UniProtKB/TrEMBL annotation:
The keyword Hydrolase does not apply. It is a single-pass membrane protein. The keyword ATP-binding does not apply. Residues 1-22 form the signal peptide. This is EGF-like domain-containing protein. InterPro entries: EGF (IPR000742), EGF-like_Ca-bd_dom (IPR001881), EGF_Ca-bd_CS (IPR018097), NOTCH1_EGF-like (IPR049883), WAK_GUB (IPR025287). GO terms for molecular function: calcium ion binding; polysaccharide binding. Pfam families: EGF_CA, GUB_WAK_bind. It is found in: Membrane. It comes from Rubroshorea leprosula. Keywords: Disulfide bond, EGF-like domain, Membrane, Repeat, Signal, Transmembrane, Transmembrane helix. Residues 243-280 form the EGF-like domain. One of its GO terms (cellular component) is membrane.
């Protein structure tokens, strides 16, 4: 077979193959909805029986909203994003305690809220902070880690808006604290020491909330503007809790499917595609091989032929060709025909071996 014929043969075979492989991997079980409004729902989550791993992973899709809204189980916690890396992005209420200019409490807000999470969720201690805002503000968060409880919080007092600096939550007008790990129940409370008298014109309220740190940037305008904000973004961690020791057991004793690894976390485990594989490790069929050869940034074969293997790839020369290294460049040239090829084609990225990819 001539060089050109071989070249075209490779192109013709490769094109339809590439089209098949490029199809996006499914994220939900076959026949199950994989979206609720703007939120994608990857298995083990699902919107109905037969679609989730177990009932803890139920996401209720409320179609009375437009676009539809996703909620955790049957509760009222809004879901905005779900990742297979173990995070669920949600929104959560702000506790508020406001006063009028006489120091009388304005009754239209909740000065506290509580949040129970089911077994698979905890509040992410790495992604969130507890934040309190106000110039006459005491805020606390009481939390439970299993049966153990803790209380933490902070105080912010200021006489004048002039001391309140933008973009820093450092204690004046805004204070923050970390949340302990593995919290599954919280109660957030806010109060004041002097009912906002004296600061009422620029800080009529105390606010307390748990917020995704990367989405929070304090501004002095928050002192007034948060009156009109109901919720803030908050991140939950999730894991499969059906068997704490699942990762130590033999294959199939846990939810991790083919070509994936079991990763123990806190009180449960998660699954992760093994190196060289991608997709949803929880779905029947497991993770799919990454064809590194389709994407030059995923292999370093350069001008050599890239051979995809399960979980990896090899670089080699076509049969009848051999590896030649010229300075730092390497490539494949035909056995024996070395000489006339060198004469016909300049060495470099235009030599014919670049077509043997
Ligand atoms: C949903 O996505 C659309 C289009 O990307 C966007 O305009 C809309 O604001 C989103 N809605 C919500 C609730 O995030
Ligand atoms: C859920 O989130 C949407 C969009 O952010 C918001 O309009 C709605 O009020 C929220 N509902 C509840 C019950 O939290
Ligand atoms: C959800 O999270 C993933 C992973 O962090 C991100 O790539 C994606 O853009 C997010 N989707 C939305 C709608 O925020
Ligand atoms: C608010 O406080 C003032 C002064 O303390 C009092 O006279 C008034 O009755 C209060 N108003 C209400 C609505 O409670
Ligand atoms: C903080 O920034 C807001 C705009 O985001 C501005 O209106 C306000 O005056 C600034 N406050 C201070 C103290 O600089
Ligand atoms: C706020 O503090 C006052 C006394 O300082 C107390 O009477 C009141 O019950 C507190 N409110 C809340 C919601 O904790
Ligand atoms: C907060 O917002 C200001 C103004 O937009 C920006 O300069 C600053 O980098 C932001 N800080 C954070 C931590 O995002
Ligand atoms: C599981 O394996 C880890 C590491 O090999 C070990 O530390 C742990 O004690 C094991 N747990 C059980 C329940 O066997
Ligand atoms: C890839 O290379 C390895 C090690 O050199 C070899 O064992 C294996 O057979 C090669 N696989 C293919 C498909 O060429």
């Amino acid at each position: 077979m001539g060089i050109l014929e071989r070249f075209w043969l490779v192109i013709l075979i490769a094109a339809p193959l590439a089209a098949i492989v490029a199809e996006p991997a499914p994220i939900a079980k076959h026949g199950c909805p994989d979206m609720c409004g703007n939120v994608s729902i990857p298995y083990p989550f699902g919107t109905r029986e037969g679609c989730y791993y177990n009932e803890d992973f139920l996401i209720s899709c409320d179609n009375t909203f437009s676009p539809p809204l996703a909620f955790l189980r049957n509760g009222n916690i809004n879901v905005t994003n779900i990742t297979l890396e173990g995070r669920v992005h949600t929104t959560q209420f702000i506790a508020k305690n406001c006063h009028d200019k006489f120091g009388n409490q304005t009754q239209s807000y909740q000065a506290w809220f509580r949040l129970w999470l089911n077994g698979i969720y905890t509040i992410s201690d790495t992604e969130n902070k507890f934040v309190a805002i106000g110039c006459d503000t005491i805020a606390s968060v009481q939390g439970f880690q299993g049966k153990k409880s803790y209380t933490t919080g902070c105080i912010s007092k200021c006489d004048s808006i002039d001391y309140v600096a933008n973009y820093t939550c450092s204690g004046i007008g805004c204070c923050q604290t970390s949340i302990p790990t593995r919290t599954s129940f919280i109660k957030v409370r806010v109060n004041s020491t002097d009912r906002h008298r004296g600061v009422w014109n620029f800080s009529p309220c105390s606010y307390g909330f748990i917020v995704e740190e990367s989405k929070f940037n304090f501004s002095s305008n928050d002192l007034l503007d948060l009156q009109n904000v109901l919720e803030k973004p908050m991140v939950l961690d999730w894991s499969i809790r059906d068997d704490t020791h699942a990762c130590n057991k033999t294959e199939k004793a846990n939810a991790c499917q083919r070509n994936s690894d079991c990763v123990p976390v806190d009180d449960g485990y998660r699954c992760k595609c093994s190196k060289g594989f991608e997709g949803n490790p929880y779905l029947p069929g497991g993770c799919r091989d990454i064809d590194e050869c389709l994407d030059s940034s995923r292999n370093d074969c350069k001008d050599m032929k890239c051979i995809n293997t399960e979980g990896s790839y090899n670089c080699s020369c076509l049969k009848g060709y051999h590896l030649v290294v010229i300075k730092d460049e390497q490539g494949c040239v035909a056995n024996q025909r070395h000489d006339w090829i060198r004469i016909l084609l300049p060495v470099g990225k235009y030599t014919f071996y670049s077509t043997s990819k």
